[in-house]
Give the backbone structure.
Amino acid sequence: MAAKKVLLRFSSSLISKPIVYRLIKDFDLTFNILKATIRPDEEGEMVLEISGNGENYKKGIAFLKESGVEVLDTEKKITKDEERCYQCSACTGVCPSGAISIDRKTMWVSFDPEKCIVCELCVGTCPSRAMQVRIK
C-alpha cells in the first residue's frame, strides 16, 4: 500500500457534492487532507495524500476525472537552488503551505520540501529562478 499526493481542482458546481467521500466508500481508499481551499460559488482545491490498493487507486482517480475533477500529478517536486537564490523572499508571500519561510533576524529564506504541496506558485514568483520543478 503506497501513498501518493494529488492536487484536486473542483469547479464551483462540484463543491457541494460528496465526491472525495466516494474514494473511501466505493474504492476503499484512505486519504489525508494536506491543504484545502474551498469557498462557495468558487473553484476549490485540495491536496490529498491518498493510500490504498494500486488497482483501487487507479479506479478512484478515474472516477474523480470522470466526475469533472481536475487531478494534477504531484510526482513532481520543488527544489531550491541555494546558489541562485539571493534571499529576496518573494516566494515566502505566495507559499500557502508554509514550506518557504524567512528568518527575520538573518533574512535567510528556508525551504522545507516535506511541507511543500507542489502548487508551483513560488516557481513563477522567484526572480532568480532558484525555485524549480523537478520530476521525481
